[in-house]
Design brief:
2 helices
C-alpha cells in the first residue's frame, strides 16, 4: 500500500492496532458515574419534596372540604328539624280541626275517639313498616351465607 495522504508517516501500529486489553476505569469515567448518581439523587430528592408538597396540599384541601361539609350538614339538620316541628304543628292543627268538624255529627267524645283512632292506626302502620325495614337491615348484616 502506498501512502498518498500528506502528513506524518504511519507506523505499523497505527495501521494494525493491537487488540484492546480490558480497559481499567480511569478517573474521568468515575467522575461521570458519580455525577450521574448525584444527579439521580437530586432528582429523587426533588421528587420526594414534590410528593410531600402534594400530600400537604391534599390534606389541607380535605380539611377544608370536611369543614365545609360539616357546616352544610349542620345547616341541613337545623332546617330538617324546623321542617319536622312545622309538620307536627300542622298535624296537631289537622287533628283539632277534625275534632271540631266531627263534633256536631257524633258528639265531642265521639269525634275525639275517631281522630285518636285514625292517628293510632297511622302510628301502627308506620311502626310495622319501620320494623320490617329493620328486619331487612338486620338480615343484611347477620353472619351466615354470603351468597
Amino acid at each position: 500500500m502506498l501512502d498518498t495522504e500528506p502528513g506524518a508517516p504511519r507506523s505499523a501500529e497505527t495501521e494494525h492496532p493491537a487488540p484492546l486489553a480490558a480497559a481499567a476505569p480511569d478517573a474521568a469515567t468515575a467522575d461521570e458515574d458519580s455525577a450521574g448518581l448525584s444527579g439521580l439523587k437530586d432528582e429523587l430528592t426533588h421528587l420526594v419534596e414534590d410528593a410531600r408538597t402534594y400530600a400537604a396540599a391534599e390534606i389541607a384541601f380535605q380539611k377544608t372540604r370536611a369543614g365545609l361539609a360539616g357546616r352544610k350538614a349542620g345547616r341541613a339538620l337545623v332546617l330538617l328539624v324546623l321542617a319536622l316541628v312545622l309538620l307536627n304543628l300542622a298535624l296537631v292543627a289537622l287533628a283539632v280541626g277534625a275534632v271540631i268538624a266531627l263534633a256536631p255529627l257524633v258528639t265531642i267524645w265521639g269525634a275525639i275517639a275517631i281522630v285518636v283512632g285514625v292517628l293510632l292506626a297511622g302510628v301502627v302502620l308506620l311502626v310495622t313498616g319501620a320494623a320490617r325495614e329493620g328486619r331487612v337491615l338486620g338480615a343484611m348484616f347477620a353472619p351466615g351465607d354470603e351468597t
